[in-house]
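help with these tokens:
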Amino acid sequence: MSQRRRGSRIVVVGSVNVDLVVKTSRIPRPGETVLGGDFRVAAGGKGANQAVAAARAGGRVTFVARVGKDIYGTEAIAGFRRNGIETEHVCIARTRPTGVALIVVDRRGENSIAVASGANLDLSAADIGRAATAFADSDILLLQLESPLETVKEAVRRAARARLPVILNPAPVPASPLPSDLLSQVDILTPNVTEAGMLAGIPMSGRESLRKAARFLLGKMMKPSSLRRAFGPAVLITLGPKGVFVAAGGNETVVPGFKVRAVDTTAAGDVFNGALAVALAEKRPLLEAVRFAAAAAAISVTRMGAQPSAPRRGEILNVMKHPSIKGEP
């Protein structure tokens, strides 16, 4: 995996936020004020985080998104370009501001997040249609659920027409069940433990619950027999430092995590998904791709911020060879 392969063209559809981050000793309870330490402003949004993570991991990324007509939107687009991301389809909303996330991070690296979606709510099915060439020129689609559901469904339909494999990171989990016509077009589903339990409607505790959730979700992901898959279906349930539970092809296994000292887990899932998209677009075997993605996520939690935490390809490969990572002080 030392060189970028030609087949690493990724289209990411999703959200853009600015993250306002306060690091505290612990996350406040309802009605409580906790005096914090460091305050940082960082580029974020699940879609943007995944696009940056994929670009830094070695992918050629086109991003489809919306930002506000404000300084946060201007800075976001400039940041994408600095990371080598194609921004032709990052549009500016007329009335809504760029999305904002308020994030509290405790001393263990755990976080609590509230989001004002802003311009992300204006990302439309029409925007997906205008980005048709990006789908035609890519090897894989990566998306999440911080965009309107109809927009997500249109992106998946567009991918099906272009014969693109689809990775869906089902976060945040919607209040109502995900439509079967959406899940049936997804090749790789990447929930964390909490999300897997919510999607499957079962309490999560132990290996057997992972199996049950994965099997339930795999059942929802079955395509009509007339449609061939490049790979999948597969359910990858991320377990934080414990690794990733992988269910695919009738097999179930855990890809171990990397031992690190976490300081901020805010974008770990996004970094995992961005790196995973790169490895799969390069036609890497699934378990190898998962290990590459897990290494990227492990590096990210040793750093503060969302996009600033995404590692470069060389760092990921180095950690895979020498799995010892030190965090920020």
